[in-house]
C-alpha cells in the first residue's frame, strides 16, 4: 500500500488521542493521528515523523501522521494500514483464492476478512503491531477485550468447520521475534494460546516500510509465552 504527498516533520506533543502538534518546515501544525492507541514510546518530543498531506481543503487538519522514526526503526503507525496491506498480501498466501471479502460477520463478531479458496472457507482477523521492546514486537500495547472476543470467536469458526486465522502485521522491519504482551493483557495471551490449541492459524509477518508505503513481507518467529 502506498501514500502520496509525504512530508517530513518533528513531533512536538499530542494533547489527545486524535491530534498531534508537529513542526513542518518551521511551522507548528495540527495533525490527525491515524492511531488512537497510546504509542507513548513512539510519539516523543523531537521524534522524526512522516505525514500525508490531505487532498481535502475543507479539513481542519491538513496532515495525517502515518509513520515515526524510533532509533533505527521506521514504524508505520497508521491503524488502517495493516488491513490494506493484508488485503494485498492474502492472494500470495492463497494462490487458489476465489473470494476475498472484508468485514464479514460470523456469530457475534465481524472479522476483517472472509476468504474462499477452491478447498476451504476461512475467517481472518488482522492485528497491527507497533510496539517494539528490545527487538521484540509485542501485542497489544493496551488491554483489548475486543481482541479476546475475536480469538474466542475464531475458535468457534474452527468448530463449525471453517478455517480460522489471525495475522499480526508488524508495522516495521528489524524485530527478532513476536510475543503476546502478557504484562499488559494476560487474558489476551491466554486466549491466543487457547486459539492455537483449537486449530486457529497464527501468522506473524513484518513489513517493508518507507515514509510513503508499507508492504507485508517476511515471517517473524513467535512464542506464546
Q: What does this protein look like?
A:
With about 220 residues, this protein is an alpha+beta fold. It has 3 helices and 15 strands. The chain has helices at about 80-95, 145-160, 185-195, and strands at about 5-15, 20-25, 25-35, 50-55, 65-70, 75, 95-105, 110-115, 120-130, 130-135, 135-140, 165-170, 175-180, 200-210, 215-220. The protein has a 6-stranded mixed β-sheet. The protein has a 5-stranded mixed barrel with strand order 1-2-3-5-4. Helix 2 runs parallel beside helix 3 (about 185-195). The chain is globular and about 55 Å long.
Structural class: alpha+beta
What general outline do the C-alpha atoms trace? globular
Biggest β-sheet strands, sense, barrel: 6 strands, mixed
Residues in helices, as a percent range: 10-25%
CATH class of the largest domain: Alpha Beta
Concise overview:
The protein contains three helices and 15 strands. It has 225 residues and is an alpha+beta fold. The protein folds into two domains: 66 residues, OB fold (Dihydrolipoamide Acetyltransferase, E2P); 139 residues, Trna Endonuclease, Chain: A, domain 1.
Amino acid at each position: 500500500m502506498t501514500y502520496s504527498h509525504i512530508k517530513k516533520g518533528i513531533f512536538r506533543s499530542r494533547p489527545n488521542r486524535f491530534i498531534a502538534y508537529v513542526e513542518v518546515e518551521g511551522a507548528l501544525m495540527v495533525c490527525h493521528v491515524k492511531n488512537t492507541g497510546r504509542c507513548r514510546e513512539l510519539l516523543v518530543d523531537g521524534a522524526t515523523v512522516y505525514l500525508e498531506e490531505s487532498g481535502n481543503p475543507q479539513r481542519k487538519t491538513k496532515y495525517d501522521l502515518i509513520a515515526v522514526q524510533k532509533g533505527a526503526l521506521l514504524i508505520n503507525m497508521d491503524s488502517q494500514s495493516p488491513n490494506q496491506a493484508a488485503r494485498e498480501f492474502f492472494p500470495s498466501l492463497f494462490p487458489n483464492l476465489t473470494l476475498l471479502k472484508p468485514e464479514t460477520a460470523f456469530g457475534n463478531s465481524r472479522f476483517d476478512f472472509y476468504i474462499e479458496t477452491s478447498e476451504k472457507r476461512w475467517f481472518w482477523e488482522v492485528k497491527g503491531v507497533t510496539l517494539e521492546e528490545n527487538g521484540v514486537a509485542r501485542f497489544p500495547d493496551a488491554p483489548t477485550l475486543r481482541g479476546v472476543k475475536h480469538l474466542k470467536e475464531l475458535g468457534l469458526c474452527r468448530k463449525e468447520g471453517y478455517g480460522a486465522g489471525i495475522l499480526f502485521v508488524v508495522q516495521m522491519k528489524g524485530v527478532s521475534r513476536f510475543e503476546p504482551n502478557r504484562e499488559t493483557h494476560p487474558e489476551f495471551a491466554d486466549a491466543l494460546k487457547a486459539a492455537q490449541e483449537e486449530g486457529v492459524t497464527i501468522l506473524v509477518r513484518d513489513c517493508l516500510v518507507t515514509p510513503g508505503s508499507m508492504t507485508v513481507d517476511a515471517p517473524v518467529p513467535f512464542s506464546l509465552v
